[in-house]
Amino acid sequence: QTQDARPEEEYKVSHLENSHRVDFENSDVSALVSQLEESLKDKKNPTVVCYCSVGYRSSMVAKNLEQFYKTSGKTPVPEIYNLSGSLFQWANEEPVWFSLSMGE
């Protein structure tokens, strides 16, 4: 499950296919966890990858998710990652982009 921590305007321009936008400033992590639990419920080894433009905002989301799972006792606990270098680095490595103008 990929989580895009960029503003809505940036997400609308382009994002990784099947990613979900998350507001990195939203302190209600439980809402994000509820959404994640639904999308990860049938996964044996659930994994969450957070990204943004350069890695700062996504690192905050990943940190908040890790802290939530550490203190809540919820299971299963997904593997949580912050995409190293985020989109700027990834874009330099011949990616496949998905744009809303292309349809969903």
TrEMBL record:
SMART domains: RHOD. SUPFAM superfamilies: Rhodanese/Cell cycle control phosphatase. Residues 4-99 form the Rhodanese domain. This is Rhodanese domain-containing protein. It comes from Elysia chlorotica (Eastern emerald elysia).
